[in-house]
Amino acid sequence: MALVNIGSYIEDMATPRPSRLARKPRAQYHHGDLRRALLQAAVRTLQKQGLDALTLRSVGDELGVSRSALYRHFSDKAALLTAVASEGFRLLHDALRTAWEHAGKGRAGSLAMGEAYVSFALEHPWHYRVMFGSGFDLDASDPELRQAGAAALEVLVESLVELQAAGLARQEDVRTQANFVWAVVHGVAMLAIDGSIEHQGADAKALARYAVERLHTGIAPAVP
Q: Is 173 inside a domain boundary?
């Protein structure tokens, strides 16, 4: 099994609920439409029945399409899961970029990104599990997955570069800082989608904001 590795994405740079679809006759599907519908059906199956229930045949049966049509888009279950992960990274990229820019970048943008990261995990829990969880047979060498993952992580790296330039973060290796920030916020996100934070009577988004605030303290330039 090959897991997506955030460090590898950052190294490369240095050198995410779908609504239920109505059943359609096969003739109504076009090339791009069917691929998208298969991804949505895969996520629904994961949400309702878990990983063991997910097969190409199960998503094909739900949509009423032939096996030959399925294989034109995905060769096997691993390819389907890899596409789900790629879609998740694209959604995460958009969420982080929007949060960073709408908050005006800087410290406020960084805080907004932390909240947006956890919000993404809560809104797309199965995308997030496939992206980062264990037990999913992903093809980590897949070009689409690598590109989508790198683009999502680039938002974090770029924000840290800007914080360093503004004197808001230490002049340290940006990849180390990015891994540090990601590890903390990722931990909050995983606890959130597992229900552990809510079980303790806490608010996941508030905890994410608190964590990012403390992270800023940790990476802020040392006072002479």
A: yes
Q: Please, what is the end-to-end C-alpha distance for the chain in angstroms?
A: 48
Q: Does residue 168 lie in a domain region?
A: yes
Domain assignment of residue 138, given as a range? 6-16+79-219
State pLDDT tens for residues 70-107. Answer: 888 999 999 999 999 999 999 999 999 999 999 999 99
Separation in Å, CA 133 to CA 30, 39, 85, 127, 185: 32, 18, 10, 10, 15
Burial of 144 (0-12, 13-18, 19+ CB in 10 A): middle
Q: Which residues contact 188 (CB under 8 A, 6 or more apart)?
A: 118, 197, 204, 207, 208, 211
Distance CA 113, CA 35 (A): 30
Q: What CATH number is associated with residue 189?
A: 1.10.357.10
Question: What sections of the chain are H helices per DSSP?
Answer: 6-14, 31-49, 56-63, 67-71, 77-102, 106-123, 125-132, 143-165, 174-193, 196-199, 204-219
Question: Using alpha carbons only, how large is the chain's radius of gyration in Å?
Answer: 19
pTM recorded for the entire structure? 0.83
The whole-angstrom distance between residue 146's C-alpha and the CA centroid of its chain comes to: 12
Q: For residue 63, tell me if it sits in a domain.
A: no
How many Cα atoms are found within 13 Å in the side-chain-facing hemisphere of 215? 24
Per-residue pLDDT tens digits for 117-158 = 999 999 999 999 999 988 888 998 999 999 999 999 999 999
The count of structural domains within the chain is 1
What lies within 8 Å, CB to CB, of 170 at 6+ separation is 164, 177, 219, 220, 221, 222
